[in-house]
Structure formats: structure tokens, C-alpha cells
Write a structure and sequence with these properties.
single chain, alpha+beta, seven-stranded mixed β-sheet, 7 strands
Length: 130
């Protein structure tokens, strides 16, 4: 079973966040794990009604080429989990703290410029009432 949860190892989380220049004191790391192995992480931070994705990682992926296969699944799952995390805390918008790599975010409905990708939360988190 694959789980994406806020990182429970707070020391490891602090270590990851120390390496991210733009991470503030409220930043958190979501970890995607399967059978105890970390498949990827999303460092996120709330800033008012904006959830900012500070960093996305997938085990073994170095961002030198477009993601493929399982890597796309991992990054997409982490992005969607980050959006859900932000929505749970009242975020209405989601943006990255880095440029859109290989059109990854644009292909998921984000707008982008030279510095980041951005979209209303409703692009990712949708509610259907029946």
C-alpha cells in the first residue's frame, strides 16, 4: 500500500527543509512511502491562502529529462496530495517556488511564467455534490 503523509521523522524533515532556501518555519514535508521505502517527497508551505510547493522529489529522478512512467505517477501523486493538504488548511491557490520543469504543471492545468507555476486550488481539488 502506498501512503502519502506528513513526514513523521521530524529530524529528517528539518534536515530536508534546511536545504531549501525559501522554506520558512511553517514548511512541512509530505512523504510518499511504500512498505517503508520513501518513493518521493513534497516540501510545502502555506502563505495566507496560497499553498507553495517548495520542492518535489522522486527517488532516482534528477530533473535532467522529462519524467516518465512511475516517476510521473509519483510526482503527480505528490502534487495532488500537496494540494489536498493545502486545501485542508484553507488554501485557495497553489503555486511552485521553482519554474515548471518540462511542462509538468502546465499539462495539469497550471499557468506558468519563467519563475513558477500557479493555479486556483479548484484546478486540482474538485468537489462534486450529488
Amino acid at each position: 500500500m502506498i501512503e502519502i503523509l506528513p513526514m513523521s521523522d521530524r529530524e529528517l524533515e528539518r534536515s530536508i527543509l534546511r536545504d531549501i532556501e525559501c522554506a520558512g518555519p511553517e514548511a512541512r514535508v509530505l512523504a510518499m512511502c511504500e512498505r517503508g521505502d520513501t518513493l518521493g517527497t513534497a516540501a510545502v508551505e502555506l502563505d495566507g491562502d496560497v499553498l507553495r510547493i517548495l520542492r518535489l522529489t522522486a527517488e532516482g529522478y534528477d530533473f535532467t529529462e522529462a519524467p516518465k512512467g512511475e516517476t510521473v505517477f509519483i510526482l503527480d501523486s505528490l502534487m495532488r496530495s500537496a494540494a489536498s493538504y493545502g486545501e485542508n488548511f484553507g488554501a485557495n491557490h497553489i503555486e511552485t517556488a521553482f519554474p515548471d520543469f518540462f511542462g509538468f504543471f502546465k499539462s495539469r492545468g497550471f499557468d506558468s511564467d519563467d519563475t513558477h507555476a500557479f493555479t486556483p486550488m479548484s484546478t486540482i481539488v474538485r468537489y462534486e455534490f450529488h
